[in-house]
């Protein structure tokens, strides 16, 4: 047999992009929900050389892999470049993003429209679980750095990594 039939059904793919420095329960909630909607969810750790992270890109990938392993259909990698190029190279038609509040919307809409204009890729917004609507990696790092309790905001392995990096244990 030749043609598309010989290649089997095409997998439905989506990407969850971000800096993930580090991954929080808010990110994880969006990735988990996307993993139920798509055959394969690619988590793309986008490299921004002008932003010095608390964790290296490899450390972020390792943490994301550890906390998403149970889903079975999540692939984690880093990418240096435009998100639309990541999508093109892997034949990914959809970007899944969490929206925490109206304040996220303006910038997310701009990026979604830019990405769609550049390559036709669609962006799907998932309303964040209200439990995490205030949550960001930056706030987690700030609170943790001052000794605040973030144990309910990040997975256990991330908490351990934060405590170690910040010299809290
Ligand atoms: O977790 P963040 O830092 O809010 O994620 C932002 C991210 C990485 C998704 C966004 O900056 C991005 O897509 N960067 C990749 C470079 C790119 O494609 N820029 C044009 C966006 S329209």
Written overview of the protein:
- By secondary structure, the chain is an alpha/beta fold.
- The protein has one domain: Rossmann fold, CATH 3.40.50.620.
- Helix content is 41%, strand content 18%.
- It has 6 helices and 5 strands.
- It has a 5-stranded parallel β-sheet, sandwiched between helices.
- The protein is globular and about 50 Å long.
- 4'-phosphopantetheine binds next to strand 1 and helix 4.
How confident is the prediction overall: mean pLDDT? 95
Write the H/E string, N to C: EHEHEHEHEHH
Overall morphology: globular
Q: How much helix, percentage-wise, in residues?
A: 40-55%
Using only CA atoms, what is the Rg? 17 Å
The CATH architecture can be given as 3-Layer(aba) Sandwich
What is the CATH top level name?
Alpha Beta
> Into which percentage range does the β-strand content fall?
15-25%
Examine the coordinates and then state which fold CATH places here, giving the name of the CATH topology: Rossmann fold
Q: How are the strands ordered across the major sheet?
A: 3-2-1-4-5
- N- to C-terminal separation? 61 Å
Structural class computed from helices and strand pairing: alpha/beta
In CATH, the homologous superfamily goes by the name: HUPs
| Uncertain stretches of 5 or more adjacent residues | none
Overall strand count: 5
């Amino acid at each position: 047999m030749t043609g598309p039939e010989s290649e089997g059904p095409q997998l439905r793919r989506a990407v969850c992009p971000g800096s993930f420095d580090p991954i929080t329960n808010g990110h994880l909630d969006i990735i988990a929900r996307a993993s139920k909607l798509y055959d394969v969810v690619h988590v793309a750790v986008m490299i921004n050389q002008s932003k010095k992270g608390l964790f290296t890109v490899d450390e972020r990938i390792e943490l994301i892999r550890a906390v998403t392993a149970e889903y079975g259909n999540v692939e984690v990698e880093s990418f240096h470049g435009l998100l639309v190029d990541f999508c093109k190279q892997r034949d990914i038609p959809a970007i899944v993003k969490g929206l925490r509040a109206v304040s996220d919307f303006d910038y997310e809409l701009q990026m979604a429209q830019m990405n769609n204009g550049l390559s036709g890729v669609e962006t799907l917004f998932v309303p964040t679980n209200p439990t995490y609507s205030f949550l960001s990696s930056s706030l987690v790092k700030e609170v943790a750095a001052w000794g605040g309790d973030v144990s309910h905001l990040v997975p256990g392995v991330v908490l351990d990594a934060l405590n170690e990096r910040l010299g809290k244990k």
